[in-house]
Amino acid sequence: MVGVLIRMKWQILRNSFTGTRKATTITGVVAGLAATGCTLWLTISAGPDRAGGALLLTMASWLLGWIVGPMMGGSDPGLRREHLRHVPLTDRQLAVGLLGAALVGVGPVVTLVAGTSLVWYALRLDPAAVPVALLVLPLFVLLLVALSNVVVASVGRLLNSRLSAALMAVPWGVLVCLGAQGWVIIAAITGGPETALPAFIADKLRLAPSGWPVVAVEAAARGDWALVAAVIGGLAGAIALALGAWALLLHRPVEPTVIRGARWRGWRPATAVAAVRGKELRTWGRDLIRIHFLTFALVYVLTYVLLPLLINVTDYLPMAGVFFVTFAVGSCAHLHSSDGTALWQTLLAPGAERADIRGRQRAFLLLVAPPALAMTVAGAIWHGKGDMLPWAVGLLPLVLGAGTGLLVFVSVFLPVRIADPHKRGSNPGSDGAGFSGIVWFVLIAQALLAAPSLALLITGTVRNDDLLRWAATPVSLVLGVALAWGLGRLAIARLTNRGPELLSKLG
Amino acid sequence: MTTHALRLAGLTKHFGEKVAVDAIDLTVPAGSFFGLVGPNGAGKTTALSMAVGLLRPDAGTAQVFGTDVWRQPTQAKRLVGVLPDGMAMTERLTGREMLTYLGRLHGLPADTVANRVDELLTVLDLAHAERTLILGYSAGMRKKIALASALLGGPRLLVLDEPFEAVDPVSALTIRSILRRFVAGGGSVVLSSHVMPLVEQLCDTVAVMHEGRVVAAGPIDEVRGGRPLDEVFVELVGGAADEKELSWLAS
Fold first, then answer.
1. Residue B76 in contact with residue B64, Cβ under 8 Å?
2. pTM above 0.90, yes or no
């Protein structure tokens, strides 16, 4: 059974390896291998005490990535429970089979390759520990994949109302942010960057499942075989536990969520653009995935700017609005992809391409600009000093303008094929598709487009020149308006000239 | 003024190695009720998608009342109402909201939109699902709301891909009478279907597609030659089940 599912998954992967998916997959592999290189270099070049700490941190980040990744849209195309509903299998068989199938993919392979640093670490400590490393590594990867699937399955169960879609984003936002901003916590605890990981943090990391492989290798090097056996037993037990939980979650299919529309109050859009704007604003309020992504951006940014308060740094607060818009654009720039084949309705309306693009831009601006402004003002008041003001005021118009431009540009030029809304499974967590590539692309593009204003701000700050610093604001205003208009113009032209091709990529 | 509602000439589409539609020529006279039949995978949906401007052909032309669909798309789109099969719609709107949105997107005046939407929802018996999003519609309701959006712009030609699939008998009767009235009022209809008796009842002209080609076309009585349509159909496309196969079934 597992063999059949693995072959099915392999075939699905091969068939879906095209277009944007191909690009994002290759980007993912390259990024993964680069991270692998860094880990290997750390474990080989650093002293044994630091190598262990580095491994502990890295493996903790893998655990985090595997748990959070699927909700960020990293889950690959694959086998879904829905596909196998009528195949006579027990839940446990199904869980084991799906686990086998889940192992076929880029993620597990990259993790396994990166995990070879554990073997190097063992080799440095004591050659006798190498077999232990070779044994615990695949177990660890199995555990990661199993845990990741348990999370996806439980998300489907929890993400069933607008409120829970928003609430679900809170832990992810905080977790991902801790991954990026973890140095703040370490600095807060230790009072400064350390060359080696402080012992008491390393001890905590050894307790987490991600630390167990390191513990096993170190125990083997010391000749503490009882501990080695305990860790291997623990890993096997955790895998069994995760599989059991997964089987339980698979047992009862998730009821599809019913979101009701509002009572009709006579909607009369004045223009075609207004019609699209109204359609989009309604969709933002009713699509659980959109609500989830937007809340994620909000929570991530709030954590990002509030965390440095631990070390009495308030400088990030005025930038909250700027960061929020940037992340919101990154996590939402797949509007046409997530609407799927509904594009035919736009394509068949004579000359509707412009209204479609401009309406989407306006709705998004209406949605993110007010909270962004409020966050900027509140942050600036809390920070109290004027030093960050030119940065916040100087970048906000630019990220708003460039953001609304990129939103539609990326959405039209980088389509990602995902299941149509009416054909999706009942679990929103398993339909994430490859949106993570889009997030990275947008973040980098935003930084590049903001370069002129950033250059003025940086030079102004370095030279302590207020005139230069404030010059960024008018530049941002002009650039923001131009980018919102220009990138939108390009999207309209693309949609007008290559609309049917976009539809084929989505269908 | 041309008398052809739809004219396809040399229309071709390849998907990789496979020729989905192989240089078909098809003429739908104005005012006709035209049935396009063929087995699964014959290329009906591909041909219709190219005919209305949703799929770019590799070769050939499609004209609606003499207007080239691919050269003058804006003019052509004003003349056609389309119901595609199995595609997503604006899923997070209610039926009334979606029709209002589409009406304005098509450039109809707000008052006209409001009146037409009211009428369409009542006639198609969708007015009761006032707060249900399209996403929550049953398969039959989806067909009906898609038909409503095809009718909304007041087209002269309707192109409907499998309009009766999954539709309950009562709704099917409603849809039929709407389509008959549309043709009686001077409109033209092209529909694709698997259901031969339905095509026989409704259509005055038919075309049979098989493996990307049109294997027969013309007034229905000519194509039938006095026999039931499904007999002629099976003869044209072949492949009736052999009684010896599946011998293990229920043995």
1. yes
2. no
